[in-house]
Every structure is written in structure tokens, then in C-alpha cells.
Amino acid sequence: MELQCGPAVKSVALQLESVRKTFSNCVVIGDLNLQIDAGEFLAILGPSGCGKSTLLRMIANLAEPDTGRIDADPAAHRTAFVFQDAHLLPWRTVLDNVVLPLELARKNKAESHASAQAILEQVGLGDSASRYPNELSGGMRMRVSLARALVTEPSLLLLDEPFAALDEITRFHLEVRLRDLWQRLGMTVIFVTHSISEAAFLANRALVMTRRGGQIKLDRRIDLPAVRDNGLRSGAALGGEIAILLAAMEEE
Amino acid sequence: MPRKWRTSAKTILPPLIPFVVLTLTGEWIVRAGIVPSYLLPTPTAVFRAIIDNRAELTRAMLKTSGSAFAGFALSTIIGIGIAVLLSSSRWVQRAFYPYAVFFQTVPIIAIAPLLVIWFGYGMRTVVASAFVVSIFPVIANTLNGILSTDPALRDLFRLYDASQLDTLIKLRFPAALPQILTGLRISSGLAVIGAIVGEFIGGDGIGSVIDVARTQQRVDKVFAAVLMASLLGLLLFGLINLVSTLTLRRWHASEQQP
User: In terms of residue numbers, what domain contains B203?
Assistant: First the structure.
């Protein structure tokens, strides 16, 4: 992987060609073809255990497909990954956690600290830089995790059910913030979730995966305004999108 | 009572009560003739033995401390080193871990004469003995700590192309620190035991004081020396606890007030 030394690209396009992955004779992803445009906000929706996370790990190069290929354009780009739980280093302060990716890439220390502090301001944690993860709430920890992912200015941001463990109000706030960050930074986002309303609210395009066999059940452009705020949540437009995704999920 | 006094009373009083009760009971059962004094000395006799032999005991204590500390330091450094090597691959682990278990199962009293043959009479044998008995808990706990590093964090380091060395220093080692310290706590006590066993055979220190006093039927002096050895163990244990508090206090549940 040449993720760290590539030129700065804003976003990346991905091409998946007959990607297949099996675990002990069980087909997790079966001959999947998928084109993801640069700068897209894609949600992958499906029941638990349908292979969404495996797909995300293969895109991140953390797992290899058995057959098929995943091409990125440009090939040299930066990927960031946000896990289901924040997964911070508990022995490091908030700031030192956010600095970590830059530190591992041997970036200038003073500049790294400045960018980490700047990104913390963006996620609303500017005054918590010197605190330790165990002194923060779940929502704050997830924001630190998000800041750590964004500090490298990734052109591809992968999120694996990042808000699943949070209470609803916190989740709503973070969804609005994530959408806003995406609009400003313009990277490609792939967001894995099992929440239908979350997928509909966040994404420009949503995929519904089949329960078994790792196939795409529905590929839908979400027809909602570009700027999304909490007001949208009670509107009929979002309700309509949710109904369509729900119907596809229920056919399973 | 000021709050500070009350909290220190809360920590000091509980262990003090059994001490006082046991001491008084010991004094009484010997004085009352229930147990003869050549089997169990009265606490006052032990105290007198400490005072009377203070020069000899202090000298012995310093000797034993030096050897136990040296053996324990070797265990810490070499034990962590071995654990890091073992953690490098499953294959290495399968090939060599069974031999590391040897340190755990070896009866130190049986190989101590062998150590004398190898290292001669004196401190080198005693240090070797302390080292042999105290290294395994360091290896086992460090290895376990390193191997149980959160897989998601390992993925994160892989995603950012972290070098092996960075992953070890910035992730695996700090993640394993609480367990490394658990290993060191166990090892610190074992190192003192190992040193004294070594001294039984290799001469010098508290071990030889105990051995000589035993042959002279000086039970009070045996107890005085044993008390010294326990103090030494406690000292090492306290040292590890201090390191533990200083390093873990900000982030690990084991060092935080409920």
C-alpha cells in the first residue's frame, strides 16, 4: 500500500470486479460488481452477518478477496477507517490519538499537532485535547475517532457502523456533522450500517445487500436535498426513501 | 477528624488489626506453655533477636537485596525480550514456548547445586537462582498482553503502514503494560525466594543466616531472618505498585478509584 506517500487527491473512484470472498465454505461476498464514483457518499445497508464489514475491509486492503479485483483511481490515495467502537489508544490524550496517523507517517511534529488541533475544533472537541479517552462520553470518543480518521485528509473514508452504539440524539448530531464534513472536504465516503433511516438520511446512494450470498439487492440514488439537517428527519421525503429501502430489506 | 486522617486510618487500620491479634495470640500461647518456645518463639523474642543481631541482619539483608534485585532486573529485561520474540510469529511461539515453561516447572531446590557448579559459591549463583525462578511470570504475562492487543487497533496500524517497531513501541507494548506489571508483581516475590534458596546452597545473605541459625536451634533468629526476607519481598512489591500507579493512573481501570 502506498497510501501515505501519494499526492493529495480529494476523492477516489473505486471499481469492484467480480469480487468473491468465502469463509470456511460460506459465501460472504459472491461475485460482486460495483462502481463507486469519486466524491460519492455511499451507504451499504444489510442485516447483520451479510458481509458488509468484510466488503469494507477488502476495500481498505485489510483483507484479500478470494477472486476478483478492486481497483482505485487514482491508485495512490489515502484511506481512513472508522470502526464500530471508537478504538482509541487509552494511554494517549485526545490530541495524541488524533496525531497518531501523522506520527506513523513521520510527519513534522509541530505541523501534525497543529492539524490535529484544527480537526478537533472541527468536530467540536477543541477544548478536550489534553483529556484521556476514559474521561469522555461515547459520543465524544466517536468524534475523536472521526477526527483521527480525517487528520490525514483521506480521499476515501470508510465507516463500519460507527454510530451503532450511541444514543439517538448523539447519533443525530454526529450524522449531521459527518454529512457537513463530507460536503466541505469532498472525499469519497462508504458508510456501512444496519439502520435504514441512517442510510437514507446520510447517503446519496444506498445499496441493500442480500441476507445470504453477498449480493446487491437494491442500488438506489437517494432523492433528497444536498444539505441535510435534523428538520429533514420528520419530513415525508425521507419517509419515502426509508419505505423503499425497508421494502427491499423485508423481501429477504 | 479531618478527611485526610480518616482515609489514611481506613487504609492502615484494617491490616493492622490482624497483625496485633496474631502477635498477641502468639505471645500468649507460648507464655502459657501451649506451644514450647523451641518450636515457636514469642514475638518479643523475635524482636529481641532482630535488635541483638542487627549488624549481621543488615549486612545479610543488603546482600540478599542486591542479588534479588539483580535477578529480578535480569528477569524483567530478558523475560520481556523473550516474550517479544515469541510474539513475532505463531511458529516461533509453538517452537519455543514449551521450553519457556521449563522455567516454571523446574524445581529450583534441585538445580541450585548445579548452579553452584556452574557459577561457583557467591553472588553469581544467587542471582542466577533468583533469575531462574522469576522469569516465567514475566514471559507468560507479557506474551499474553502482547497477543491480546485489540485486533481493530492492529488493523488501524496496518492501514497506516506502521513499521513493526512502531507497532511494538506505540501499540503492543503500552497495551500489554498492565499485564506486564502483573507479571512483575508475581516475579518480585519469586526473585526474593529464589535468592534465598540460592543462598542456602551458594552461601551469604539472609539464606545463610537462616541456615546457620537453624543448625544452632535458634528459632528466634530464624524468624527474625524470615521477617527480614518478607520485608524485602514487600519492598519490591511496593516498588512495582508505585511504577504501576505512575504509569497506569490516567488510563487503566486497575489504578483508578471506583
Answer: 58-250
Residues of A in contact with B157 (CB under 8 A): 104
Q: How far is CA B21 from CA A4, A113, B41, B49, in A?
A: 67, 59, 16, 21
Assigned domain for B257 exists:
no
- Report the pLDDT value the prediction gives residue B254, as an integer from 0 to 100: 81
Task: Give the orientation angle of helix B219-248 with respect to helix B54-87, to 10 degrees.
Answer: 40
- Domains contained in chain B, number: 1
Candidates A89, A97, A131, partner chain B, best to mutate (most B CBs within 10 A): A89
Q: Which residues of chain A have a pLDDT value below 70?
A: 1-8, 252
What's residue B38's pLDDT?
87
Chain B contacts of A57, Cβ < 8 Å?
A: 155
Instruction: Quickly list DSSP for A90-157.
Output: TTS-HHHHHHHHHHHTT--HHHHHHHHHHHHHHTT-GGGTTS-GGGS-HHHHHHHHHHHHHTT--SEE
State residue B25's pLDDT score.
Answer: 93
CB contact under 8 A, A3 and B159: yes
Under-50 pLDDT residues of chain B: none
C-alpha cell read off for B200 = 542456602
Give residue for cell 453477498: A214
Residue B158, C-alpha cell as written in the block: 496496518
Answer whether A81 sits within 8 Å of B155, measured CB to CB.
yes
Domain contains B16: no
What ipTM, to 2 d.p.? 0.87
B-chain CB neighbours of A132 within 8 Å are: 250-251
* pLDDT tens per residue across span A67-114: 999 999 888 889 999 998 899 999 999 999 999 999 999 999 999 999
Query: A10-77+190-252, which class in CATH?
Result: alpha beta
Instruction: Mark out the alpha helices in chain B (DSSP H runs).
Output: 3-31, 43-52, 54-87, 90-105, 108-119, 123-147, 151-159, 164-167, 173-202, 205-215, 219-248
Q: Which residue in chain A is spatially nearest to B178 when comparing CA positions?
A: A91
Domain ranges of chain A: 10-77+190-252
Three-state secondary structure call for residue B36? coil
pLDDT at B204: 86
The predicted structure's pLDDT at residue A219: 92
Question: Is the CB of residue B59 less than 8 Å from the CB of residue B209?
Answer: no
Cα A69–A70–A73 angle (5° rounding)? 135
Contacts of B249 (CB under 8 A, 6+ apart): B255, B256
Largest CA distance in chain A: 54
Q: Residue B1's pLDDT is what? A: 53
